[in-house]
Amino acid sequence: MSVAESHESVLRFEHVSVSFDGEPALLDVSFDARAGHSHVILGAAGSGKTVLLKTAMGLVKPQDGKVYVFGQDITTMNERALFAIRSKIGMLFQESALFDSLNIEENVAYPLLNQKSIDFPRSQVLPRVKQALEFVELGNTLGKFPNELSGGMRRRAAIARAVVTEPPLQMYDSPTAGLDPITAHTIMALLIKERDVSKATTLMVTHRYQDGNLMANFRYNSDQGRLEPAREGVREPDQTTFMVMKEGRLIFEGDQDELEASHDPYITKFYKQRT
Amino acid sequence: MVASGSGDRYSLLDFVKEPVLAAQEFFQLSGRALKNIFRRPHYGDDIILQMDAIGVGSVPIVILIGFFSGAVMALQMSRALAQYGQIGRTGQIVSLTLIRELGPVLTAIMVAGRNSTGIASELGSMKVTEQIDAMRALGTDPVQKLVTPRLIATAVMLPLLTIIADFVGMFGGFIIARFLLGLLSSQYWNSVWRDLDWYLDITQGLVKPFVFAFVVSLVGCYFGLRTTGGTQGVGRSTTQAMVVATVLIFVIDLLFTQIFIGTGGA
After folding, report:
1. Residue B206 domain-assigned?
2. Percent helix, strand and coil across chain A, each to the nearest 5
3. CA dihedral B48, B51, B52, B53 (to 10 degrees)
4. Is residue B132 part of a domain?
């Protein structure tokens, strides 16, 4: 039975609190992300969304609480032990975080060559990199450097790097931030395609409700090669969970209907963006 | 005024806490960088690349600084020596001053200006654009990949650059001694070598740049990796790296000079 089918817990936060120089960034956050599910994390700037993702990767150590990734408590692990866990997580950083000094081919090949626990055959690296770049429609950019690409292309190259190892947990930090609506839609289509092809557990941080709406209501049709409404317009509410962050606290967790039924003024601001 | 007194104590503690914490973080980073020299993986390509950037790239400026400092020393010292009829010892004064002090200190300051700042801005930019986080996320220890190669490269190249600066400085002194002071070539070069002491001069002249290399590379890396606050933060880190590296070079120079004089019997 695959991870996606088992619905076991992939990522679990238990009363996690994080602060920087005494300023709280996460306050008593608890949730459970199950295999194959999508989580859309909404919140204003500075609400703790990025810190939440970095804590899930072990890049930030919490002061209180426990974080379990694939059943293992990562809060007590040292940096070297965390590398094995991180090799199962694909992360798209907010600013893409491609390495300036490496070209696109080297950037995308980086996780295949540097993650010890993956042990990918060297002869297969280039074909796999090409495959990942073609997936994000950047097959002709192998020799280019990040500063030669547009913002949207950099974001797509970063997606290719995040998913090149086919990790079972994928996290995207504001994938459409700062992009025009057309490029933002292209990026979202790629993320949905990746989610549906790999059946990975997905956490997406965003402040745009439209992105969450696409994630919840569309799926990738591999036969026709395009997005289509999930079940011809009928939503699968149990597959996508919406979470809302405010000032470091998780103030809402539920499906899209529950979110839209909320009368909390902070929450309503997000779904009213749709119109 | 109990409240005011306790308030003062609190602010004093806060005032002391920050530099103590910074020193602790600096020594932790230094310890990890040194430990990584003996741990796999080794990034040989990065070491060669950094040797080229730090060492070969600094040769022109080190030659210029060495030449003019040697020439100026010869000019200044010849005036003082002339009063005692000892102008023939100009070469000796130039070589001692260069090998013991000016060569190591000026070269280290030049390399700090060029490379501590360069390292701080490069690593700082990587920090604020989340490339350091990405590196950690993708299975690489940033200290092993970024700090240790820069430390090794600087520790190898700075003593070599200092040797170049010393020799070029002596040549600068020779140009002044031969063409302005009218000394014979043999007279100048004999006085350059005659009184050099293996321990007090040569060892001191090589140990100092080796120690300065740790300061130049690690201070740059430390300020780069703790950068916060976007591009403004990168600028701040770069300035701090230069100031701290320069001050530490002078402090360590004084300390090592005293150690060598104390143990050398001069």
Report:
1. yes
2. 40, 30, 30
3. 120
4. yes
For chain A, which residues make up each domain, given as ranges?
A: 36-59+78-88+167-274
B96 is in which domain, residue-wise? 55-264
Percentage, residues of chain A above pLDDT 90: 50
Residue among B255, B157, B252 nearest B213 (CA) = B157
B126 within a domain of the structure (yes/no): yes
Residues B95-129 pLDDT 10s = 999 999 999 999 999 999 999 999 999 999 999 99
Residues of chain A found within 8 Å of residue B135, distances taken between Cβ atoms: 99
Amino acid at B2: V
Chain B residues whose CB is inside 8 A of the A106 CB are none
Q: How far apart are CA B50 and CA B36, in angstroms?
A: 17
Task: Give one DSSP letter per residue of B18-85, joined into a string.
Answer: HHHHHHHHHHHHHHHHHHHTTSSPP-HHHHHHHIIIIIGGGHHHHHHHHHHHHHHHHHHHHHHHHHTT
Q: What is the pTM (predicted TM-score) of this model?
A: 0.86
The owner of tokens 């859309």 is: A40
Average pLDDT over residues A249-272: 88
Taking only the tens place, the pLDDT of each residue in A192-226 is 988 888 889 999 999 888 889 888 888 887 777 77
For residue B19, is it within any domain?
no
C-alpha A6/C-alpha A231 separation (Å) is 22
Token pair 């005494």: residue? A22
To the question of domain A36-59+78-88+167-274 being in CATH 3.40.140.10, the answer is no
* Segment A114-136 mean pLDDT: 88
Contacts of B133 in chain A (CB under 8 A): 54, 59, 93, 97
Query: CB–CB of A83 and B130 under 8 A?
Result: no
Exposed, middle or buried, A124 (CB in 10 Å: 0-12/13-18/19+)? exposed
Q: What is the pLDDT of residues A67-107, one digit of tens each?
A: 999 999 999 998 888 998 999 999 999 888 999 999 999 99
**Touching B: A residues 214-273, CB under 8 Å:** none
Q: Which of residues 68-97 of A touch B (CB under 8 A)?
A: 79-80, 83, 86-87, 89, 91, 93-95, 97
User: pLDDT, tens digit, for every residue of B82-95?
Assistant: 888 888 888 888 99
Inter-chain contact A86–B133, Cβ cutoff 8 Å? no
Total number of domains constituting chain B: 1
pLDDT at A4: 44
CA distance A4 to chain B (A): 23
**CB proximity A155 to B under 8 Å:** no
Nearest CA in chain B to A102: B131
Helices within chain A (DSSP H only): 3-6, 49-56, 79-86, 104-114, 125-135, 151-163, 181-198, 209-217, 256-261, 265-271
B171-218 confidence digits (pLDDT tens): 999 999 888 888 888 888 988 888 788 778 888 999 999 999 999 999
The residue among A135 and B224 whose pLDDT is bigger is: B224
Helix (H/G/I), strand (E/B), else coil: A28 = strand
